[in-house]
């Protein structure tokens, strides 16, 4: 993924999600890390044009996005889950069980 694709994702997904939840860009604080595609001028200018407040992060800051850690834990638990999910529907059911703390099959 590059900065152009990241901007496209922001345009397609972020604004739509805000709209779905009846939120305006000025009602949230947007967070992303210091990945070069996030800090590129193309994306920064788009965020400014949308009046989105971005949480400032210092360079080389640790990953403060908890969801990355949550997904890593889910992936770890999925590796030992039996029987293994065979399709996306089964995978979603297993992920929901794991998130609810219902281990095992």
TrEMBL record:
Record-linked InterPro entries: RNaseH_sf, Tc1-like_DDE_dom
One family name in Pfam for this protein: DDE_3
Tc1-like transposase DDE domain residues: 14-89
Taxonomic superkingdom: Eukaryota
Molecular function (Gene Ontology), one example: nucleic acid binding
Gene3D superfamilies for this protein: Ribonuclease H-like superfamily/Ribonuclease H (3.30.420.10)
Name used for this protein in its record: Tc1-like transposase DDE domain-containing protein
Lineage, top ranks: Eukaryota, Fungi, Dikarya, Basidiomycota, Agaricomycotina
């Amino acid at each position: 993924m590059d900065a152009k694709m990241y901007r496209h994702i922001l345009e397609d997904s972020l604004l739509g999600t805000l709209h779905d939840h009846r939120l305006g860009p000025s009602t949230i604080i947007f967070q992303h890390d210091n990945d070069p595609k996030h800090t590129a001028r193309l994306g920064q200018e788009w965020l400014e044009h949308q009046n989105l407040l971005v949480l400032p992060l210092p360079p080389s800051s640790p990953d403060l996005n908890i969801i990355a850690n949550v997904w890593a834990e889910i992936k770890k638990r999925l590796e030992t889950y039996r029987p293994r999910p065979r399709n996306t529907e089964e995978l979603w059911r297993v992920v929901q069980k794991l998130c609810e703390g219902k281990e095992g099959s």
